[in-house]
Amino acid sequence: MTNAIAFVISIFIAMPILVYILLFSSAKWLTKNHRYAVNLAIYGATPFVIGSVYFLFLTIWNVSLLWLILIFMALIGIILAFYIWQKNDDFDWHKLYRGFWRMNFAFFLMIYSFLLAFGILYSVIRSIS
Known about the structure:
Layout (H helix, E strand, L loop, with lengths): L1 H13 L1 H16 L2 H28 L4 H23 L4 H36 L1
């Protein structure tokens, strides 16, 4: 049983877009609310996207860059907190939390796409030569 759970989690980390699609389609089917389904899918898929970026770095360069990922997440939170504080003259933790997950999803999805393309090209070039 634990092997099956580990297998499913590893598939979700390897393909975070699959998590997004599953969460979105499930939420859309259950709630019939498109906006809520997108937000739920983003919030649920973000940890898997971050995990996949970590493992792509580990696979391509054989080095753990968890410290760099955590620094980027902290910087995103700090910049977003400063922006919310300046724009609203009042600090709203709920906006910070939502914005933090959305910005992390967007940032790490871009990094994931780049690393995926780079990893495929790197593997092809390495196998040719």
